[in-house]
Design goal:
Its cofactor is pyridoxal 5'-phosphate. By secondary structure, the protein is of the alpha/beta class. It has 15 helices and 17 strands. It is globular.
Length: about 400
């Protein structure tokens, strides 16, 4: 695709043709989960209707075909993330499983009481709770780094938190609440000099901008398929060969073994060593179709479109002097979390704008430490994707003006 044709892109997402409450759907909940283009829907339908069989174990035609399509996705993700090797890509059900794999397979056998994990206050619960398990069970210390008044995370503040006891930095690449993009590369460079691995939650960033894991220098980089215009229960985590060699398997079962006897077990080579049991075959094939679609559109083109959309939305929303927007980072992506002055709860706001056919998210967004840091219990969030338009921004603004009239 040589130019960004927004109408052509919108036409490729069937759900955008529907109405909600008698109004054309305006879908602004992409930070939670993105809609699916027809090519993904077709890939999933074909996977079940024409090609389905279990992978890796069979010698018959359908098993070979299914295995070929399934394993091809590893190469697609390698290209999408610019990893050096296909076997650095581990399939899973999404970022939550990927981070838990690192917690159980890499961190748990290596960390002891008093060892430290550095987190930012912006982390999603998926990048907090697995580390709390280690705090509860092994006495690991969680060290928190706050954002500044603009919602920026100073990489030097993360670096300054490193001590001889620091064993891991687990950091988001892009906040799902503030939209802040973190300077991960500066953090990983200093961390490597101190012998500290870095795990990056790429759930939000990978869908909005080009990602190069080799350039970022991350040891672990997790992505989740349902935010990448792919199926739910699909995802992957990049783990460098160096870190894979330090890991024990987390899940045990079929396909991750080489031999099993009554008194011994030997394991398969990575990545299959970390992928036990029958996987989400069709889901992963659907994710491959989604990533190929995005790369065909061009990640630079998607990023440019969303940057322009962010600037337009920021200008319009800043004009509402009764709207409190959380986070004003210069690196901000097209994510806006806000509250209204007065008594309106974010749930009330969400309900009113839903009557206009506009889908936004209301709540703590699985980021309760950040909510506490911001001094709020919840916000509304409008998060934009590759198919959103300036006209939809205008509809959101009009709906928020109605909310202000109703509640203030």
């Amino acid at each position: 695709m040589t130019m960004y044709d927004i109408q052509k892109i919108r036409a490729e997402f069937p759900i955008l043709k529907r109405e909600v409450n008698g109004k054309p759907l305006v879908y602004l909940d992409n930070g939670a989960s993105a809609q699916k283009p027809q090519v993904v829907i077709d890939a999933v339908t074909r996977g079940y209707a024409e090609d389905y069989a279990n992978v890796h174990r069979g010698l018959h035609y359908l098993s070979n075909l299914s295995t070929e399509k399934y394993e091809a996705v590893r190469g697609t993700i390698k290209t999408f993330l610019n990893a050096a090797h296909e076997d650095e890509i581990l399939f899973n059900s999404g970022t939550t499983e990927g981070i838990n794999l690192v917690s159980y397979g890499w961190a748990a056998p290596r960390l002891q009481a008093g060892d430290e994990i550095i987190l930012s206050v912006m982390e999603h619960h998926a990048n907090i709770v697995p580390w709390h398990f280690l705090r509860e069970r092994q006495g690991v210390v969680l060290k928190w780094v706050d954002t500044d008044v603009n919602g920026d995370l100073d990489p030097q503040a993360v670096i300054d938190a490193i001590t001889p006891k620091t064993k891991l930095i687990a950091i988001t690449h892009m906040s799902n609440v503030l939209g802040t993009v973190v300077d991960v590369k500066t953090i990983t460079k200093a961390a490597r000099e101190n012998g500290v691995p870095v795990l990056v939650d790429g759930s939000q960033s990978a869908v909005h901008m080009p990602v190069d894991v080799q350039d970022l220098g991350a040891d672990f980089f997790a992505i989740t398929g349902h935010k990448l215009y792919g199926p739910s229960s699909s995802g992957a985590i990049y783990i460098s060969k160096e870190r894979q060699a330090e890991m024990r398997p987390f899940f045990g079962g079929g396909d991750m073994i080489r031999t099993v006897a009554k008194d011994v077990v030997t394991y398969n080579d990575p990545p299959h060593k970390f992928e036990a049991g029958t996987p989400g075959i069709v889901q992963m094939i659907g994710l491959g179709a989604a990533l190929e679609y995005m790369m065909d559109v061009g990640m630079e083109n998607i990023s440019a479109h969303e940057t322009a959309l962010r600037d337009y939305a920021q200008d319009k929303l800043n004009g509402l002097n009764w709207l409190n927007i959380q986070g004003n980072s210069k690196t901000k992506g097209a994510i806006f979390s806000f509250t209204l002055e007065g008594a309106a709860h974010p749930h009330d706001i969400s309900t009113v704008v839903d009557q206009r056919g506009i889908a936004v998210r209301a709540g703590h967004h699985c980021a309760q430490p950040l909510m506490a840091h911001l001094g709020v219990s919840a916000t509304c969030r409008a998060s934009f994707g590759m198919y959103n338009t300036t006209e939809e921004v205008d509809k959101l603004v009009s709906a928020l003006e109605l909310c202000n009239e109703l509640f203030n």
